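Can't attach files on this board, so I'm pasting raw text. These are the components:
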Amino acid sequence: MTKLKFQRPTGMPDILPADQIYFEKVLRLAENIGDFYGFRKIDTPLLEETALYEKGTGLTTDIVQKQMFSLRTRGGDNLTLRPEFTPGIIRAYLEHGLNAWPQPVKLYAWGPVFRYEHPQAGRYRQFHQFNAEVIGTSNSVTDVQIIQLFFNILNDLKLKKLVIEVNSIGDSACRPYYKKLLISYLKSRALGLCVDCRRRLRENPLRVLDCKEAKCQEIVSGAPQIIDHLCDGCRRHFKEVLEILDELELPYRLSPYLVRGLDYYTKTVFEIKSEEEAENKRTDALAAGGRYDGLVKLLGGPDTGAVGGALGVERVIALLKAKKRKEFQPTYPPIFLVQLGFLARKRALKLLEEFRKNKIPVSECLEKDSLKAQLKLADKQGVRYTLILGQKEVLDKTIIIRDMKAGSQETVKLDKIIKEMQKRLKKL
Ligand code: AMP
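---
Top answer:
Structure tokens for the assembled complex are below.
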């Protein structure tokens, strides 16, 4: 085959029809659960000012340093394709005065996210997130409600062996002291760290904790743990989070070196994984998030507590697909309309309109001529009834109903077919 002239950009998948059912089901379920917890939907533009991410997501993050798709408009504005939802949502919260609404404000959003990554299984340059934020509260119960929301989406999708990894990374009162301890520990072992981590050690030492390199992980396994150095407020908050998780009997595990890649997190951070996935050597988080009490203020608003998270839709779908579950297979209408000859074909199109107006789903293949080919298709779709309209039937104003299950066949008046099918479908 000759090489195609145009191909999709690296790491940016097409979502073909067979995959749409997965996206629809995951997103509908996520929205239903969000609605139940009192979240409301928000959409923000795919493009935001680049400076919003530099300031919000943070200059020392991988996202800002190497993953943004940025452009300059003809008018000279510097914009970036959304690499994560939170800064845009906080921008909208402030821009529209949502801080004057009764607090907290609970918002969810979903859509594509863009990061310039090395594409591999479960890691794309364009992927989708379902995102949820609760803005305007510092209460620990909200941290758990966010965790519960994402856990329940995954659990209701019947994903197995779910585990919540949770940690507290403190706040501006206690993290600086911990950072010092960590830096002095890491500095004495700097030669054993990877090149990236030696840079991180200078710029953002906490990020060394979630490096995936084996040699760094070994050094990290002996590092001081932040939960031993939390201030009273952060310790109390974290204790409450864990107590509420216990109360809900959610399967969580303390993960003392979990820090997450973003600068704005404070106190609680979490990741939800499927251990089933771990058995297959993949341990990527399906959903993740945390509290970010400083971000609203950083972006120009009042001092406001907030917590949020995001679910990676493609990663969830990859797990669902591996299971080949029935509810994600395409479904077909119970009726197939076969037409034979030009006269019948014309009449079939009109008949289809009557079915549509009566909200009775019917499939067809008007382009095919032969009875055999159309019956084969009807059979493949597993339909219960095939309606056959030939030249003779059109002239007689009749139509044949073939019951595919019973193997029986009956001719009825064409003007009675809607009522007849309504009656039959009711009995299914
Ligand atoms: P983050 O916004 O980095 O906290 O990621 C939240 C979730 O998005 C992760 O738990 C993943 O499920 C998903 N995710 C992050 N990066 C990617 C990517 N490059 N490709 C696919 N999914 C991703």
